[in-house]
Please model this.
Amino acid sequence: MIMPDSGPLNLYSTYSEHFPSPDSVLLETDTGERFTYGDAERESARVANFLHGLGLHKGDRVSVQVEKSPQGLWLFLGTLRAGMVFHPLNTAYTQEELQFFLTDACSSLLVCDTANEVQLRTLCGVVGTPHLYTLGAQGAGTLSQALKPRSTDFAAVDTVASDIAALVYSSGTTGTPKGIMLSHGNLVANASTLVDYWGFTQDDCLLHALPIFHVHGLFVAIGCALMSGCRMRWLSRYAVREVLESLPQSTVMMGVPTYYTRLLAEPAFGAQMCAGMRLFISGSAPLLPDTFSAFEARSGHTILERYGMTETGMNTSNPLKGERRAGTVGFPLPGVDVRICAEDGAPCASGAVGDLQVRGDNVFVGYWNLPGKTAEDFTPDGFFITGDQASVDGTGYISIVGRSKDMVISGGLNIYPREIELLINSIPGIDESAVIGIPDADFGEALVAVVVREEGEAVVSSEEVIEALRERIAGFKVPKTVQIVEELPRNAMGKVQKAELRALYS
Ligand code: MLC
Ligand code: AMP
Model:
């Protein structure tokens, strides 16, 4: 949504208005290091000076595929300060996937892991990305060398609410990923709402175990911390042992449902280690009511479930004070208009299932270079059509009950079956395929490919299908199993019956 530009607005500058004294601790890492708010200011200034020194301009894309580290956070903050567009990339993406992203985003700079430098330098040559620097998990690499001589002072570039702060890709029902343009205004609006709604203060310590290449870990978690001036217990990845050790020093945790089911699977997890915790938040995928109840029984805490999307940030949330209801995502957040509509666009009565639509300052500016797709996904009165199906009960609690888009969420990561089907169908010896999600105790949903082989062709095995996919796409998108069948079930119109396949393989 395009907001009126009523003056300068920069996400970093807004964060920094809430920073406590420079010597206040911002990050405590799993290796025992501590970084202060002063470090964040100085190091992000070096990044901003470096980006300007490279000759990059406001609006240029800075693509980043690195392991989670404090230096990765400075890179994000420095990019915002410099007025450039932060383009985070999942570390699991293969070269083929990166080629698409760098080309589509027309990136000016790629920062990658030291280990990938050689291959990605060649790729940058192919796609025309002019600059490449490296950043290893421990902070070493050509980027840190280049940053050393830079000044630790930098005045944030003048940006306005509608200027793009980040470009985050999500795949889609056509199989081709699309860039989601998030503006400074979108990210400021959502983070400030969440800080208030979830009661963040400087006294909090947020247990941050999420990756920082997605909206959840990057804008929701980091946004709440920086806009309240609190501390973060910073884990480089979600490892259940480190989470157990960190809980006694934390007050808030955010995670996808898998984070909570993995905690419940640990016999050592219990109420005592949660004594200092005030809030557990879950999102990015449905939290099963059984998980909600088991967690309450073990820890004494009711998990607060919220609902959002990359395109919109957070839209609804269960309350901080008041009943958190299992199986629901609570109420619309302040400043977010939510409505549930029938196919003809009329509002649904309470209890009826319809398409969930949202409008507000949190809603993205549009899809990168795809004005037609952007127009298609908005109603004439400015509501974004989420593709989620929902209902609202008589007391206002909203439940997400399904999706009109064909999408699987595995461990909080979205996978669009069409993308995988197109790749499987291109393997020699394969006639066609259908990719589905089936219930999985760990990931919520697990990917299964149902495959029909070509008659008379050399026989392709399930293992060969998996191997062929591994070379081309991120591991989390590779189906956990491949079922070879004679034919796919179809209805009278010739459409593959995925519900039938799900029932068969669940
Ligand atoms: C890893 N693997 C997965 C997977 N993650 N498979 C399916 N689904 C996943 N989510 C596979 C790898 O390919 C590998 O397979 C094997 O599991 C081990 O990899 P790993 O990296 O060691 O796994 P692990 O550390 O256990 O990671 C699982 C996880 C992680 C759940 C901790 O995926 C995670 O942190 N998920 C959170 C994602 C997130 O931040 N989502 C928010 C999106 S924003 P192999 O076969 O190669 O060995 C959003 C908006 C909103 O949705 O509302 O928030
Ligand atoms: P992403 O594209 O990664 O931003 O994922 C957004 C999608 O995740 C939404 O459209 C929903 O389908 C799903 N989602 C996020 N939070 C929840 C939740 N609490 N319950 C159910 N689905 C959710």
